[in-house]
Give the backbone structure.
Amino acid sequence: MAKTEVILTHNILDLGAESDHVKVAAGYARNYLYPQGLAIPVTAANKRRLEVLRQRRAEREAHDLNSMTDLSKSLSKMVLLLKVKTGEDGKMFGSITAGSIADELKHQFDVSLDKRKIRLDRPLHQLGEHEIELRLHADVNATLKVRIESANPLPPPTEATATDGKSKDGVKGKVDGEGKFGPRERREHPPRRPLRDKAAPAG
């Protein structure tokens, strides 16, 4: 496959940055880089543009460094909360990956971060708090706290019932008085008539 050397006019991931001389497939340069304005052919005229490209590159890199430095300070104060399903033994179903963390950063804090900047040796499989290393820039690292909690609903509380003792109303039944013998359903008895005094026996 024929190769050609080009001068990049924009930063292209995994290829280079402004003012870099790189070799690419001739068809890639002709069909994509040149039409998109991402590169120019290496000619005497174009070489004179290198100083302008280098200046623009320096300004962009300085801006990126400042932005990533500010972002690292913000991230170090955050705690990213992730809810996961677990079994009865508390073990997680599945795992947390760099992609999961990047998605939640965007969802919870509106922070867009390339998952490749999240340094995970292996996916997370344990509940609890984890400290994750972030490589935000060649000169900027940060640490993000990630807390993983179970999303399973808590078991419903058991209803407290009274023992064989009496309730506060002196009637056996539920403590809250809402059972068969509760005050809501207790029959209303008519007041008793006062007993008449018996007449003293004649002497």
In short: Residues 50-75 form the longest helix (26 residues). Confidence is low (pLDDT under 50) at residues 171-183. The radius of gyration is 38 Å.
